[in-house]
Amino acid sequence: MTNSEIKAEFMVDIIDGKYTLNEAKQKIRAYEEQYGSDFFADYEIEKKDKPWDMEYLKELKLKGMTGMASKQFFLHLAEVSEYVHANADTSHSKGDKKKFIFAGIIAAIIIALVIVILCLSKSHAAAMAVIAEKNAIIAKLQSQLLL
User: In this predicted structure, what is the pLDDT of residue 10?
Assistant: First the structure.
């Protein structure tokens, strides 16, 4: 594999949450020992402040795919990835919460409508049975009166 392929694979593994920040530091040291201290470029990167989210992680992925490959980039990527994956199960964006609430309300309305329709159809059937029974009684009385 070429250096670029190694870095690309490392980036994907970090994004997927396979490395914590400390594990990424160890991996970077191992790469530098194996390929030399100039394996990673040395330049600073622009960082956003916390809280970080999946969108920021995707933004970093795009930067990595366009050639950002400094040691500082990989360390920041690992820090952001670890943060995002740790918080992914416990926090949702406001938009996600609104979507879940809206879907729950729609589901409740649909269930209520189905119950009402079922009750009405049963009531209608029972009413029709009572009417049919009364009609039968009336017909029987009429036939007796005509005799």
Answer: 92
